[in-house]
Amino acid sequence: MSIRTAGREPDMTVRAVAEALNLHPETVRVMTRSGDFPNAYKTGAGKQSNHIRIPWSDVEDYRTKQPKVSR
Q1: Per-residue model confidence as pLDDT tens digits over 31-64
Q2: How many Cα neighbours within 13 Å face the side chain of 38?
Q3: Which of 51, 49, 54 is nearest to 11 (CA)?
Q4: Is 63 helix (H, G, I), strand (E, B) or coil?
Q5: pTM, whole model, 2 decimals?
């Protein structure tokens, strides 16, 4: 991600995470509910908000835990 806010990566939308990990957005939502991104949170008022934000650090942690694919 190229945009920086106050020296740190901004929190990402589900769509941005899906693109970064080459996954479907619904897969990212399921992963969020299952705890793969422990610091994810909903924005907006009340529990009905569908706007999920995922810190870039959670995405990087997830990437480093994935097995390497050999070609």
Answers
A1: 999 999 999 999 876 666 668 999 999 999 999 9
A2: 2
A3: 54
A4: helix
A5: 0.75
Rounded Cα distance, 46 and 69, in Å: 41
Q: How far apart are CA 23 and CA 16, in angstroms?
A: 10
The residue assigned the tokens 């299952």 is: 34
Residues 6+ apart with CB under 8 A from 37: 17, 31, 54, 55, 58, 59, 62
Structure-block tokens of residue 36: 């793969």
Torsion of CA 5, 9, 15, 21, to 10 degrees: 160
**Tokens 């997830």 -> residue:** 62
